[in-house]
From TrEMBL:
A Pfam family assignment: Molydop_binding
Domain (4Fe-4S Mo/W bis-MGD-type) ranges: 49-105
Annotated keywords: 4Fe-4S, Iron, Iron-sulfur, Metal-binding, Molybdenum, Oxidoreductase, Signal
Entries under InterPro entries matching the protein: Asp_de-COase-like_dom_sf, MoPterin_dinucl-bd_dom, Mopterin_OxRdtase, Mopterin_OxRdtase_4Fe-4S_dom, Prok_Mopterin_Oxidored, TAT_signal, TAT_signal_bac_arc
Record-stated family: Belongs to the prokaryotic molybdopterin-containing oxidoreductase family.
Gene3D superfamilies to which the protein is assigned, alphabetical: 2.40.40.20, 3.40.50.740, ADC-like domains, Dimethylsulfoxide Reductase, domain 2
SUPFAM superfamilies, alphabetized: ADC-like, Formate dehydrogenase/DMSO reductase, domains 1-3
GO molecular function annotations of the record: 4 iron, 4 sulfur cluster binding; metal ion binding; molybdopterin cofactor binding; oxidoreductase activity
Name of the protein described by the UniProt record: 4Fe-4S Mo/W bis-MGD-type domain-containing protein
Keyword Disulfide bond assigned: no
Classification of source organism: Archaea, Thermoproteota, Thermoprotei, Thermofilales, Thermofilaceae
Keyword Transferase attributed: no
Length: 841
């Protein structure tokens, strides 16, 4: 690890000068306050201030902002008080977002290099005009097209693109003719968790479901840290009501959320599923479940034959599966909606078949998952598990939190499925506890990707059940290195720092060196950008107008946008202008096709007509024109949208009522339209692949790969999390945030008594060595009682090597330790299936 201290402080002074912030010394102790104060005083006497609405892009939480601008300069950023997402609040990263525009390290002009041998460093680049850079991209694509090699192009997106403009990337890919375009967040962030939830309620991404923090009375949080891995929509809501609910935080280390909890349960990593199964056991065996909810809202009464086949009765007009229940009132099997009192328990004879309600099977299944059983697996005392189970069952509303990030283990899907089932048992779904957001209420099923895509072919080969969704970007490695299933020669990196955020990051770095051409769209010379041949710098988010977006996360249905707060400082472009600039150079046909594909990817009912409108509007007014077309297609008042930044079309009360009604009517996105205690999706996987607990149609214990592999003496589980003042690897170079982040959050946490026995002291350099691959990474030790004895905790935000970043400091690039894997259901990266040895460096 390089010592960056001296260049950091020097550059900070330079930065302050560059940002025009005078009167600030580099010796400040509370930089936040002192930095902002002089500027406020200095500008009071000057031009008129204006407040410009936008959406924060410092992390994926999409907080709604107001930006104070005077004399063409950004002075201050605040939460938009009208914003239903963050309710006027923002975090430290949002506050410091102005440095995203004024950071001197930004990419300021397109860059081209001719010697691919220099990939991996910032040397060898020459500044280019936009015409030169876009011509270079277009001529490479033309060459691939003329040689019939266009499928060799892969487009990989990071969260800043995927959250907002994945349709742009997909339309670009479709237009040039490659099936290989995917964002990394699906496999690296959320799909296993989302699929676990959606197997029960039809939706499950963090944008689609929200814990009802306003009303909750008992909250169990697993694998999540909403006060540390912040998104204000969750943190604010949970924080404002703290004290109104009992908070139980399950985490192998003492997180920021654990610090606010009534009960912290330091669980053995990867075993939350056993904990949840034992809670289910307690809730059922103590009779604390909500039978009425289960009967009305879920398929818990559905009859399942002895051979495991559900008794179905065709589909309705909307394609939803109809099924039979035993009606105790009529004493016969009828369709669910025709029953007066569906049975939850017992065994019945229907025709020549013996069948039991799903709830009965669940009860029998979890009978062995006692707190005593779970204690052995999780390390949490049985008495504590029983106590939590009883409290959870007796308090209403109670819920297991939605979670956000979890591609961590082989059993991640089943873990979140168990959370959903536990919530259903106490009526904590949709009506209470976990609610469906506006974005969730309008969700449609994720389409399959092309059968020819590398992601899908690779995922299928790995045996990933949901390979058709194409989230398995890991597959590009084999394609680049070995041409398997075919060669990928050209990669577009759209706003991703894949050289740090992809598992087995060293392998990614080496793979980038093997490519014919690498093109990166970014704002910073991050580690990944150093591997590019053509660098296309984007405007910062505060310098740009954006299209219209659905309001994710909020419990309302609404739309919002970005309005440019200031003119671009440098020779940068909007990513839409970049893509349009490329397709235009490919010729009129491609250009026209692009607009239709873009309209299609945006979900237009008539892509031809919408495409023509978008093209026309863009030619007249650029991105603002696109926004106008989108807004008028939804009958939204464009002037209001541009002045306030957002429009709510359905409030929280109306939305919730509608969702409850939809659930009762059987209109959820699940195959049966109801909450599925028996999952038809998982049952399909079972039919195709045979039975494994990882896709049990109801729920079952399934081990993580690392289970039992760390002894806490010489071998350890590695768990990671985020730091409140950092976002993944993209904020390490923010001068302000870098100063705000305490050093111990960059260190590797190791249990104090374990550290003592290994002779490791605070600040010692240590090595974490992967038991599986032998890969090793250096870290600075932080001995503490706040982590389990068998566990090492690291922040996932650090470890940059780029010499072009001047404000980064030390940290652990943990993805050098992770291998390339895929969980068997969702294809998630299994980012914590790692056991390490610890040595003094
Ligand atoms: N090491 C590590 N790996 C991880 C994670 C982690 O925390 N650490 N988290 C996992 C998760 S949950 C996720 S969601 C993924 C995220 O993976 P990535 O999407 O790769 O996340 P970041 O590290 O934030 O990198 C985002 C990139 O976008 C650039 N960027 C930021 N704003 C803009 C913009 O306005 N325009 C353009 N063009 N570029 C911009 C940044 O400079 C940075 O290079 O990573 C997964 N992998
Ligand atoms: N400050 C900040 N906030 C962010 C982000 C960021 O980069 N920085 N990124 C955003 C994004 S894209 C995402 S995906 C979310 C992620 O936010 P979260 O969903 O909260 O995910 P993590 O931070 O990965 O992990 C949360 C906690 O899980 C604990 N943990 C690890 N393994 C286990 C386990 O096996 N069992 C249990 N019970 N706990 C475990 C970790 O110690 C950590 O405290 O944060 C979002 N908000
Ligand atoms: S949580 Fe913070 S960084 Fe993320 S969008 Fe909100 S204000 Fe921005
Ligand atoms: Mo994420």
């Amino acid at each position: 690890m390089t010592d960056t201290t001296s260049r950091t402080s020097l550059s900070r002074r330079e930065f302050l000068k560059a940002a025009g912030i005078v009167g600030v010394t580099a010796t400040m102790s509370t930089p936040t306050l002192r930095l902002l104060k002089p500027q406020t005083q200095r500008t009071e006497a000057q031009g008129e201030e204006k407040w410009v609405p936008t959406i924060c892009m410092m992390c994926p939480a999409a907080c709604q902002l107001l930006v104070r601008v005077r004399d063409g300069k950004i002075e201050k950023i605040e939460g938009n008080p009208k914003g239903p997402i963050n309710l006027g609040k923002i975090c430290a990263r949002g506050q410091s977002a102005l440095f995203r525009t004024y950071n001197p390290d930004r990419l300021k002009k397109p860059l081209i290099r001719n010697d691919p041998g220099q990939r991996g460093s910032f040397t060898g680049f020459t500044e280019a005009s936009w015409d030169q850079a876009l011509d270079a991209v277009a001529s490479h694509l033309k060459k691939l097209i003329s040689e019939g090699r266009i499928k060799e192009v892969a487009m990989i997106g990071g969260w800043p693109l995927c959250l907002y403009l994945e349709p742009l990337m997909k339309a670009f890919a479709e237009t040039i003719g490659t099936p290989n375009a995917i964002g990394i967040p699906g496999g690296a962030c959320f799909f296993p968790k989302a699929f676990g939830w959606s197997s029960a309620i039809g939706v499950g991404t963090h944008a689609q479901i929200l814990t009802d923090y306003e009303n909750i009375k008992y909250l169990v949080v697993i694998r999540r840290n909403f006060f540390g891995s912040i998104s204000v929509v969750h943190g604010t809501r949970a924080g404002q009501k703290i004290g109104n609910y009992k908070l139980v935080v399950v985490d192998p280390r003492f997180s920021e959320t654990a610090a606010k909890a009534d009960l912290w349960l330091p669980i053995r990593p990867g075993t939350d599923l056993a904990f949840l199964l034992a809670l289910i056991n307690v809730v059922i065996s103590e009779g604390l479940y909500d039978a009425d909810f289960l009967r009305k809202f879920t398929n818990a009464p559905m009859l399942v034959a002895e051979d495991g086949t559900p008794l179905t009765a065709g589909t309705d007009a909307a394609g939803k599966i109809k099924y039979l229940v035993w009606d105790l009132a009529q004493n016969k099997a009828v369709k669910h909606e025709e029953a007066i009192l569906p049975a939850l328990e017992g065994e019945f004879t229907v025709g020549d078949k013996k069948a039991k309600p799903v709830f009965q099977i669940l009860k029998e299944k979890v009978a062995d998952y006692t707190p005593e059983w779970a204690e052995k697996i999780t390390g949490i005392p049985a008495a504590t598990i029983r106590q939590v189970g009883i409290e959870f069952g007796k308090t209403r509303p109670a819920a297991v939190d939605t979670g956000w990030h979890d591609p961590k283990y082989k059993n991640s899907v089943m873990t979140w499925r168990a959370a959903a089932i536990l919530n259903a048992l106490v009526g904590g779904l949709i009506k209470d506890g976990i609610i469906i957001t506006g974005v969730g209420s309008t969700a449609t099923p994720t389409p399959d990707v092309s059968e020819e895509s590398v992601m899908r072919i690779w995922g299928t080969k790995q045996g990933v059940a949901m390979a058709s969704k194409g989230f398995t970007f890991q597959g590009f490695l084999d394609a680049i290195e070995k041409g398997d299933p075919y060669k990928i020669s050209t990669v577009f990196l759209f706003t991703t720092n894949l050289a740090m955020t992809g598992p087995d990051s060293t392998r990614w770095r080496n793979a980038f060196k093997k490519l014919e051409k690498v093109i990166a769209v970014d704002i910073y010379p991050n580690d990944t950008v150093l591997y590019a041949d053509i660098v296309l710098p984007e405007h910062s988010f505060l310098e740009r107008d954006d299209p219209l977006y659905g309001m994710a996360y909020a419990p309302v249905l609404g739309f919002h946008t970005r309005v440019a707060a200031v003119q671009p400082l440098y020779d940068t472009r909007h990513v839409i202008d970049i893509v349009v600039g490329i397709v235009k150079r490919l010729g009129e046909d491609y250009y026209n096709k692009f607009w239709v594909n873009f309209a299609k990817a945006l979900g237009a009912a008539d892509p031809q007509a919408m495409g023509a409108k978008l093209k026309d509007a863009y030619e007249k007014e650029g991105v603002k024109g696109i926004r106008k077309v989108q807004a008028s297609a939804r009958n939204l008042d464009v002037a209001k949208l541009e002045s306030e930044g957002l429009i709510v079309v359905k409030d929280a009360v109306t939305l919730r009522k509608e969702m409850i009604q939809k659930t009762l009517n059987g209109q959820l996105l699940t195959p049966s339209g109801r909450i599925e205690i028996f999952s038809f999706a998982l049952n399909n996987i079972k039919a195709k692949k045979g039975y494994q607990p990882y896709w049990d149609p109801i729920v079952a214990w399934a081990e993580p790969e690392v289970y039992g592999k760390a002894d806490g003496k010489t071998t350890f589980y590695v768990v990671y999390g985020r730091v409140p003042t950092m976002t993944h690897t993209s904020t390490a170079d923010e001068p302000f945030l870098s100063v705000l982040t305490p050093e111990f959050k960059r260190m590797a946490w190791i249990n104090r008594s374990v550290a003592e026995s290994l002779g490791i002291k605070k600040g010692d350099k240590i090595k974490l060595i992967s038991v599986e691959t032998g890969a090793s990474v250096e870290a600075v030790a932080f001995p503490t009682d706040l982590v389990r004895e068998d566990t090492i905790w690291v922040s996932s935000d650090f470890g940059h090597k780029s010499e072009a970043l001047h404000f980064t400091k030390f940290g652990v690039p943990y993805h050098t330790l992770t291998g390339v894997k895929a969980d068997p259901v969702a294809g998630g990266i299994m980012s914590q299936e790692v056991v390490v040895r610890v040595e003094k460096a």
